[in-house]
Design brief:
The structure is a single chain. By secondary structure, this protein is an alpha+beta fold. The chain folds into two domains: 38 residues; 239 residues, MetI-like (MetI-like fold, Orthogonal Bundle), CATH 1.10.3720.10. It is built from twelve helices and eight strands. The strands form three sheets. It has a four-stranded antiparallel sheet. The longest helix has 34 residues. The two termini are 43 Å apart.
């Protein structure tokens, strides 16, 4: 036995010809080459900065910015630091990405389902919408919204009023809320109502399944929230917030919330453009579900809308989520085009900081870090959702 093992050892190939070891060696060599290339790039950059008298570092973020920002979600003055200015840019980017993802998902879902509708006119209109906006460059669409729609609006003294909203070349003013006293108590009671409503829904759903009779669990849950809201109003004596319609006051708006032409243009451009791709993703996901599922739902007597909601779409979501994630990431990164219409997000403010402080590498690194962080968070959330939507196999 020992002689046989010695023979096997004697005929085993050397490690540089071993099929298990060769891939490891190649990966190590590749990693060394990449690290060496990165070191050369960084060393070359540092050498170039030293030659022009600059040092690599982020201490400049504590210096006074000295420039104004037209839109800021938190208080900002030109006397604040570069760091706070970049924080404003990051928040403005997050603002576009957050509302853009929500609105483009809703619009994409509507257009995608309309494209598959049996109504000939609705289907053709959805198809035309997709083909027109999907095949037009995004930057061109943003320019059209900004220069052809929002800037030619009437002057603020002659603002166009549609319902409670006002439109002018200085922006769009929409109704906005103002917090009342007792809003904290309202928030606590509302959270409690959601918890109670959840358990009531589960209980009613269980009874509905056991009895076979339709007892509307959703209405029971909604009733709990309404009852708690009435109790909250009786206890506090007022509503949590009061909405105020905007009005024109001199050369500005009084009350409400103002959406600048730049923000409106970039948001609409991103939402409309990205929704065309999401619409096609949803259509492909629904069509990817086995046709037998639709036939089985019809055989059970389910309406088309019910079959789509309870049978088709839960299966289609597994196909939809991966490409949908890519579109969310594209929307976030495409928000950098806002610099073309004067909306000051992270790229616009980063360019200003770069020119004033003379720190191009640091400024670009911050921009990259912001987009990378937003993208990783979006991917993490969508991957978690994708994992929950997958079929569990035994």
């Amino acid at each position: 036995m020992s002689e046989l093992s010695n023979q096997k050892k004697s005929i085993s190939p050397p490690f540089w010809r071993n099929k298990k070891i060769i891939p490891i060696i190649l990966q190590v060599v590749f990693a060394i080459i990449v690290l060496a290339f990165g070191y050369l790039l960084i060393n070359n950059a540092l050498s170039g900065l030293r030659q022009i008298g600059l040092q690599l570092g982020f201490d400049f973020l504590a210096n006074t910015a000295g420039f104004s920002i037209s839109e800021a979600m938190i208080d900002y003055q030109p006397t604040d630091t570069y760091g706070k200015a970049l924080l404003i840019g990051m928040l403005n980017t997050l603002r576009v990405a957050f509302f853009g993802i929500i609105l483009t998902t809703i619009l994409g879902l509507i257009v995608g389902l309309s494209r598959m509708s049996n109504n000939w006119l609705l289907s053709k209109l959805a198809g035309a919408y997709i083909e027109i906006f999907r095949n037009t460059p995004l930057l061109v669409q943003i320019f059209i919204w900004f220069y052809a729609v929002f800037l030619p609006m009437p002057k603020i003294q002659e603002a166009l009023q549609i319902g409670p909203m006002l439109f002018s070349n200085r922006g769009t003013a929409i109704p906005w809320y103002e917090e009342n006293q007792g809003i904290l108590l309202w928030g606590i009671l509302f959270f409690v109502s959601l918890v109670i409503a959840f358990f009531v829904y589960r209980l009613m759903l269980k009874k509905q399944i056991e009895s076979g009779k339709k007892i509307f669990p959703s209405l029971w849950a909604l009733g709990v929230i309404v009852v708690v809201a009435i109790i909250s109003y009786v206890v506090t004596g007022n509503t949590p917030v009061t909405f105020h319609a905007p009005s024109v006051a001199g050369n500005g708006f009084d009350g409400g919330f103002v959406l600048s032409p730049g923000f409106s243009a970039i948001l609409l451009g991103l939402v409309i453009y990205t929704s065309t791709f999401i619409a096609e993703i949803i259509r492909a996901g629904v069509n990817g579900v086995n046709k037998g599922q639709s036939e089985a739902a019809k055989a059970l007597g389910l309406k088309n809308s019910t079959a789509l909601r309870l049978v088709i779409f839960p299966q289609a979501i597994r196909i939809i989520i991966p490409p949908l994630t890519s579109q969310y990431l594209n929307l976030t990164k495409n928000s950098s085009l806002a610099v073309a219409v004067g909306y000051q997000e992270i790229v616009s403010i980063g360019n200003t900081v770069m020119n004033q402080a003379g720190r191009p590498i640091e400024a670009i690194a911050i921009m990259i870090a912001v987009y990378l962080t937003f993208s990783l968070i979006t991917s993490l959330f969508m991957n978690y959702f994708n994992k929950k939507a997958q079929l569990v196999e035994r």
